[in-house]
Design goal:
- It is a single chain.
- By secondary structure, the protein is α/β, with parallel strands linked by helices.
- It folds into two domains: 134 residues, Rossmann fold; 60 residues, 5' to 3' exonuclease, C-terminal subdomain (DNA polymerase, domain 1, Orthogonal Bundle).
- The protein has 13 helices and six strands.
- The longest helix is centred in the middle third of the chain and has 16 residues.
């Protein structure tokens, strides 16, 4: 089941209905950041051209971009419409281009351009389906971090917390800041975890399961490890 979390305010766009028609499971929520969340770590902010222009001039754009970068493990900006048409909306079209280029270069924000809302829905579907495939999951590890090479307590704390499912460097920092230590994170209850921005119900359940399950539970072949040992050695 491919799930997409959709902000309540996106209902009128028509995109959620298209996603449902394409076979995705749409779950409406009041999202603090972004308009769509795919696979829990890709957060998509959708901007129609007219909204993009207004948001740049009223100051919302960079506030939204900074929050998107801070919140999401993999933030994506989708600009909906022909960018050339910005010149028809404002004489200050260079300011819009400058804002987009700044978001891409300074904030390293992945940006994609679509023709209309139907095209946007198709792009979201593509992202959702690719992220749910086994091959892509094996090929890309967003949570894979290098083991610290020095005896730095803070680096080791971040490394340990990032080993939890769905936790990247930003969420690891949030969790450690919230609970004070690695032990505090591991002792946190489900209700405490979901109060942390960026921790969904599914992600909290996975973390609790990993931390509390007995070792070997659900591990294929864990009960047969002795078959790889020389039986003569076991008698010594």
């Amino acid at each position: 089941m491919v799930k997409v979390y959709v902000d309540e305010r996106e209902k009128a766009s028509g995109i959620p209905d298209i996603l449902s028609g394409l076979g995705l499971t749409v779950i409406y929520k009041m999202l603090d950041v972004g308009d769509y969340i795919v696979n829990e770590f890709v957060v998509i902010e959708r901007k129609r051209l007219d909204d993009l222009v207004h948001s740049v001039f009223d100051g919302r754009f960079f506030d939204q971009v900074s929050r998107l970068i801070e919140y999401a493990e993999k933030p994506v900006l989708i600009v909906e419409g022909n960018l050339n048409d910005v010149r028809l909306l404002t004489s200050k079209w260079k300011a819009i281009e400058a804002a987009l280029l700044t978001a891409i270069i300074r904030y390293d924000l992945a940006t994609y351009y679509t023709n209309d809302y139907r095209h946007t829905a198709e792009v979201i579907k593509y992202i959702a389906e690719k992220l749910s495939t086994e091959d892509l999951g094996r090929g890309i590890s967003y949570n894979k971090v290098a083991k610290p090479k020095r005896d730095d307590t803070r680096e080791w704390q971040l490394f340990i917390v990032q080993s939890l499912p769905g936790i990247g460097p930003k969420l690891a920092h949030k969790l450690l800041s919230k609970f004070g230590s690695v032990r505090g994170v591991f002792n946190a209850s489900y209700s405490e975890l979901i109060r942390v921005e960026g921790i969904s119900e599914d992600k909290a359940n996975k973390i609790i399961k990993i931390i509390t399950s007995s070792y070997g539970k659900g591990v294929k072949g864990s009960e047969d490890l002795t078959k790889y040992v020389n039986k003569d050695q076991l008698l010594k």
